[in-house]
Amino acid sequence: MAYEYAYPRPALTVDALILCKATTETQILLIQRKHPPFENLWALPGGFIEMDETLEQAVVRELQEETGLVCENLQQFKSYSAVDRDPRGRTISVVFWEVLMEIPEITAGDDAEKAQWFPVDRLPELAFDHAEIVEEFCSKY
């Protein structure tokens, strides 16, 4: 189905903020981006929603495609809508989160070069506004 609108529309994405408290240090799951923008930088797993799925379906799909991890108890945290948050164009992201008590096996896939757990207090440089997202989440939970 083709759509035609008189006004531009922003793109909609989802991001997954997955923490693990299995060790003395809280860990966060990140992916290394395989493609521009921010190629080779680390980011929260996520991506664009498909026209035929809900936000909840999209975040489960993106997380599984990029890390092999299946999480079905994800909770919506917040939306991020800064005009310049994505150099590709106007993009709004809805962030979902879950805290795990065991570190599961992960496998990078789709457009993720690597998937890896990091101590939440020692993060690598993050793409987009993901450092702000992690900082805000950690200050509230």
Written overview of the protein:
With 141 residues, the protein is α+β, with helices and mostly antiparallel strands. Helix content is 17%, strand content 33%. The chain contains 2 helices and 7 strands, in the order E-E-E-E-H-E-E-E-H. Strands 1, 2, 3, 4, 5, 6 and 7 form a 7-stranded mixed β-sheet that branches. Strand 2 (27-33) and strand 3 form a beta hairpin. The radius of gyration is 15 Å and the shape is globular. The termini are far apart. The mean pLDDT is 95.
Give the SSE map.
Blueprint (H helix, E strand, L loop, with lengths): L10 E10 L6 E7 L8 E2 L2 E3 L6 H13 L7 E6 L10 E10 L11 E8 L10 H11 L1
Parallel strand pairs: 1-6
Antiparallel strand pairs: 1-2, 1-4, 2-3, 2-7, 5-6
Task: Quickly describe the structure.
This protein is α+β, with helices and mostly antiparallel strands and 141 residues long. The chain is 17% helix and 33% strand. The chain contains two helices and seven strands; from the N terminus they run ββββαβββα.
